[in-house]
Amino acid sequence: MTKPKPADRSVAGRKLDHLRAVLEDPDVERGRSGFDAISLTHRALPELDLDALDTSTRFLEKPLSFPLLISSMTGGTGEEIARINRNLAEAAEATRVAMSVGSQRVLFADPASKGSFQLRDAAPSIPLICNIGAVQLNAGLDANHCLQAVQALEADGLYLHLNPLQEAVQVEGDRDFSNLSGKISDLVSKMSVPVLIKGVGAGLSGPDVELAYDAGIRHFDVAGRGGTSWSRIEYHRRADEQDDLGLVFQDWGLTTVESLLETRGVLVKKTDPTTLIASGGLRDGVDMAKSIILGADLCGMAAPFLAAAQESSEQVIRQIEKLRREFQTAMFLLGCADVSQLKANVSLIRSRSKFW
Questions:
Q1: At 197, phi and psi to the nearest 5?
Q2: Closest CA to 247 of 86, 31, 28
Q3: In three state form, how does the secondary structure of 161-188 look?
């Protein structure tokens, strides 16, 4: 490892540090989410017309062309960040998929960042989700701040991301996660849109899901281990060259598959309708199909779109259409005419792995 570059300790500068780490360090991508352990039953006689398959679904009461969410990436000041978010929003609208933005805490540190979150004109019909770190409820942010974040994006939902590992490693991290479930419950009762809970690269466990459900949460994004390692990203921002905490914990947490199974195991016992989002290392349409089979309603991805988003919305559209074709082909080869025939259909799993 090389000597750390000086990190920008401002909230806005941190966003650029994160983007550079993702683009410059290939080992930030860990590649062990658990999907390779799952094989599916190929149908040589699917009895379907590939072009007639229905890949559509709904999310936050809006239609999607297929179950894809462009996961949270960035937001803040600067031309690069604004261009990335607008390219993503335009592509999401053109392809009819959902989109979430990066943490909006920067709104309250730097009001000039608001423009990077004003995306509704570029994406008038799709679900847009705003984003605040749950730990900020212990650091001065409240329901009024969260409502401002919703208003800035004209959002359909609010992510509360849970990132204790990232905050523990981050030099300027907020580490007081005490009594958050009570504050989340209070926030849910005051919000004008649904509140969603999201992991950050280390997954959600059963006890997390129980606490969040009891707090009023009905939408869960596992964001498991195996994709982008935020612990390793923060390692690049370390102040001390000898500080290797981010490397020690770069593979900490539940894999995406483990977290999906554990979260699903809790939610199927609940009476209220819930939404389960698979994210964390999903990289193609086959991973998406496997996620839906494991019980997910939607699939989130971020890293596959970052390089394209730096170029143009057209490049992002190409990436999304590639994923859609892969997902549709997987459905075809499994003999599933629509997404409902995939959903939680574990009979499609050919060999039972250690997770079963």
A1: -100, 135
A2: 28
A3: EECHHHHHHCCCCCCCCCCHHHHHHHHH
Residue whose token pair is 């490693």? 169
Q: Would you state the structure tokens that stand for residue 321, as one six-digit string?
A: 């259409």
The predicted-structure confidence for 192-227, as pLDDT tens digits, reads as follows 999 999 999 999 999 999 999 999 999 999 999 999
Q: Residue 54: what are its φ and ψ, rounded to 5°? A: -105, 105
Pairing of strands 219-221, 39-40: unpaired
Cα torsion through 139, 220, 119, 229, rounded to 10: 70
Number of residues in the chain: 356
Residue 135, SS3 per DSSP: helix
CA 56 → CA 11, 64, 97, 337, 344, distances in Å? 37, 6, 10, 11, 16
Q: What CA–CA distance (Å, rounded) separates 148 from 118?
A: 12
Q: Which two tokens stand for residue 206?
A: 């059963």
**Cα(146)–Cα(161) distance, integer angstroms:** 13
pTM for the model stands at 0.92
The 10s digit of each residue's pLDDT in 46-66 is 999 999 999 999 999 999 999
**Residue 297 near residue 305, CB atoms below 8 Å:** no
